[in-house]
Specification:
two-stranded antiparallel sheet, Rossmann fold, NADP, about 375 residues, eight-stranded mixed beta sheet, 16 helices, globular, glycoprotein, membrane, single chain, oxidoreductase, binds the ligand CC(C)=CCC[C@@H](C)[C@H]1CC[C@H]2C3=C(CC[C@]12C)[C@@]1(C)CCC(=O)C[C@@H]1CC3, binds NADPH dihydro-nicotinamide-adenine-dinucleotide phosphate, 3-beta-hydroxysteroid 3-dehydrogenase (NADP+) activity
């Protein structure tokens, strides 16, 4: 289990293996030591690859802000922004629930979505936000907002691609509690929120939906060729999934592989390897964004014989809720920015008294842009 070995790293490897002339990758990671290791691993198999590193922690607004400023200095346009960072902290696995579902008609759904057998314990970040919400959704939202000038260009398109999940459920999400302060399934809530937000971003940033929903008054102001899509990688063996059964040593997961291959005969969502899980991410890279369905989730799937393919499935989302969430995120953004400004004022004072601050320090969001952009 090497660090930075998840779906994000597999996507980089697969992108570099394509004949994509002039591709420039920028890997935004929270831990620069792990980022450097990932960079070396990619360079060893693709020595001519153009890869840059960037420090960014999506659970810290100031880190996202600093990273966004750096990107603006380095590039003048971004063609693809992969929003991949995600956490499931302190997962609790309901063994009783697992066996109950195992001997019921819901067994396939349980293996495909993890529905009903997983809860998490969330905490609050120094920004005063719920950690899962900020890491999996809000940090990315701030990044998109700050990168608008690089993403919105007349006459050409850019793509936002969210790594969502089959674990995203409407029942876990409440508009009155978008951060999921009161529930026990913040991961599911954050992933459902990313599905909603993707739809809202399409409403606000391109003509695809705004043409359908004429009620959006300010759409025309921000309209540009920015398209957002959502993928589900399936069930993949990564650091995130290993942490679900912490008492389970890694070799036991390996011993379970024949069982998982057997389960794959019944549910093609058991993609299992990060390479397979990255299938839909790579597929989207090759599509014309205008041809994509903003209400669909694109699933990486692997057949019983091990063949990979991508399939769209309609999401359980609606325009009204997605727009309401977008407005709430804008509101939280303005509150957080206000707090941050006040903090910065305090910081200037602290610095003059000699206090030094350090940043807390993976592969998560990948920006990719074509040659000749710098
Ligand atoms: N594995 C699965 O079965 C599924 C995964 N997903 C989603 O796929 C995405 C990738 O996960 P996966 O590859 O499985 O798991 P990993 O844990 O391997 O990858 C998650 C990546 O996100 C990074 N990350 C976590 N928190 C932050 C942060 N605050 N700031 C910046 N980066 C951060 C991690 O960095 P670091 O290396 O430093 O820990 C890591 O590189 C996630 O969004 C996950 O929710 C969705 C469905 C199923
Ligand atoms: C035989 C045996 C021990 C099976 C393991 C069962 C569970 C640990 C997995 C079955 C379906 C998995 C799953 C996820 C986590 C692990 C399982 C519950 C996710 C919830 C991981 C994160 C996601 O985003 C979606 C995954 C869906 C399937």
């Amino acid at each position: 289990m090497s660090p930075c070995s998840g779906i994000g790293l597999a996507l980089c490897e697969r992108l570099l293996s394509q004949d994509t002339e002039g591709l420039q990758l920028c890997l935004a990671c929270r831990n620069m030591r792990r980022a450097q290791a990932a960079r070396w691993a990619l360079l060893s198999s693709h020595p001519a690859a153009q890869e840059a590193l960037l420090q960014m922690d999506t659970s810290s607004i100031s880190s996202v802000h600093t990273a966004a400023q750096e990107v603006k200095l380095r590039y003048n346009r971004l063609d693809y922004l992969y929003l991949n960072a995600g956490i499931m902290p302190n997962p609790q696995f309901d063994v009783k629930g697992f066996f109950k579902a195992f001997f019921s008609r819901c067994v396939i759904t349980m293996f495909a979505t993890g529905e009903g057998i997983l809860t998490q314990k969330d905490c609050v970040t120094p920004d005063g936000l719920q950690q899962v919400f900020e890491t999996n959704l809000f940090g990315h939202f701030i990044l998109i907002r700050e990168q608008e000038p690089l993403l919105c260009h007349a006459g050409r398109t850019s793509q936002l691609i969210w790594t969502s999940s089959s674990n995203a459920h409407r029942s876990a999400f409440k508009l009155e509690d978008v951060q999921h302060q009161r529930g026990t399934t913040p991961y599911s809530s954050s992933k459902y929120a990313s599905d909603l937000l993707s739809l809202a971003l399409n409403t606000h940033y391109n003509k695809q939906i705004s043409a359908l929903s004429l009620t959006h008054t300010h759409t025309a102001l921000t309209c540009c060729g920015l398209y957002s899509s959502v993928i589900c990688p399936g069930f993949v063996m990564t650091n995130l999934t290993y942490s679900i059964l912490p008492s389970f040593p890694a070799f036991l997961w390996t011993l379970l592989m024949p069982v998982f291959w057997l389960i794959r005969m019944f549910t093609n969502t058991f993609t299992l390897s990060p390479y397979n899980g990255a299938e839909a991410l790579l597929w989207l890279f090759k599509q014309k964004p205008e041809s994509l369905d903003p209400q669909a989730k694109y699933h990486s799937l692997t057949s019983g014989l091990g063949n990979n393919y991508t399939q769209p499935q309609k999401m359980d989302i609606d325009l009204e809720t997605s727009d309401a969430l977008y407005e709430k995120l804008l509101q939280i953004e303005s509150e957080v920015r206000k707090k941050l400004k006040e903090k910065t004022k305090g910081l200037q004072y602290s610095c003059s008294t000699g206090i030094m601050l350090t940043h807390n320090s993976g592969m998560e969001s990948i920006y990719s842009c074509q040659a000749g952009d710098q």
